Amino acid sequence: MNKEQIIQALKTIVEPYSEETSAIAHIDENTDFINDLKINSANLVDIILDIEEKFNIEIDNDSMAKMLTVKATTEIITQKLEANAGQ
Amino acid sequence: MVITGLGVCAPNGTTVAEFTDAIKKGTSGIRHQPDLEALNFSCQIAGKPVLSDERISEYFTPLELRNLNSTGIVYGVIAGLDAWKDAGFAIENNDEPDWDSGTIFGTGTSGIDKFRWAINKIDDLEIKKLGSSVVIQTMASGVSAFISGKLGLGNQVSTNSSACATGAESILLAYERIKTGQAQRMLAGSTSDSGPYIWGGFDAMKVCTFKHNHEPEKGSRPMSTTASGFVPGSGAGSLVLESLDSAIARKAKIYGEVLGGHVNSGGQRGLGTMTAPNPIAVQRCIQAALQNAGIKAHEIDVINGHLTATSKDAFEIENWKTALQLPTENFPYINSLKGMIGHCIAASGSIECVASVLELHEGFIFPNINCEDLNPEISALIDVKSIPQTLIEQPINILAKASFGFGDINACVIFKKYIP
Question: Is the dihedral of CA B73, B76, B80, B86 positive or negative?
Answer without folding.
Answer: positive
